[in-house]
Amino acid sequence: MVGNTQQWQDEFPHTVQLRDTTLHFQSPIPAHTRKALEQLVEQTPAAKRVSAPLACSASKLFTKREQLDSLRKKWRMQRGSPKRNGMYDWSLEELINTHEAARRGARVPALKGFGYRRSKLGLMQDFILITELLTGHVDGMSTVRQAPESVHHVIRATFELLHALHAQGITHMDLWAANVMLPKRGEAQAIDLENSFSEPTDYLSETLGFQFGFFYFREIYRYITEADYDAAVECALAEYFPDVQRAAFNRVYALAKHEEIGRLKRREIFTSGVLESRW
Fold first, then answer.
1. If you count Cβ atoms within 10 Å of the first and of the last residue's Cβ in the chain, which end, N or C, has fewer?
2. What percent of the chain is predicted at pLDDT more than 90?
3. pLDDT of residue 203
4. Which residues contact 79 (CB under 8 A, 6 or more apart)?
5. What is the secondary structure of 37-72 as a DSSP string?
6. Is the pLDDT of residue 1 over 80?
7. What dotted CATH number matches 137-272?
């Protein structure tokens, strides 16, 4: 699949064959889970990417399914090969990053399995990611939309989660409110790790500047004044990241709060600390 193929086979040794789809799991699955998976793979996806809980409440699984839309991507995914820039396609990035974050004990859904559908010629057509279903959780964006006064709670929970992820060596470069899952009681968890890193950066201050700024830019600005958000960031930095280099942080933070930064550009911040305004 990707990287050390034998390692993936050892960690996910239980193979389930459903028509033209192969799924790999850490442990054997019960009959009710198999039946729900059969129904899943028989469905024609309504979109290129479909994310939903598995239609079996007893299984407590969440599935993501992507239709591979180009021959080049199909070959890369099948061979587990990176692109020219060294990155894997986003589905494989999420598989790798979720697995590593969960292995470290970071607050993310556990990776339960993965799989793929092949054509009659053996070429990969779809990729499927299967994780733990976070029952009893609501994402932060839905929480704020339903109750705008909850924005301060969502911000505090997110900043604490951000710190917890960094403590485990996980840098989430798409951490906006919809990717923060809040339980009724307990600690928040992060989802959608396709654009994240599990190695240290030489540009922590710039990376944090992006993360804090991006969280404001992605919808939260609608529910809080910029001055109040800045004050919340100041408190978080004092509590969680007191050693941040403020000049480097402020430069990226000021831009990230107000400009859309693409997924690849975010990775440049992590690897080089560079972010220049388009204006």
1. C
2. 81
3. 97
4. none
5. HHHHHHSPPSSSEEEEE-S-TTT-EEEEEEE--SHH
6. no
7. 1.10.510.10
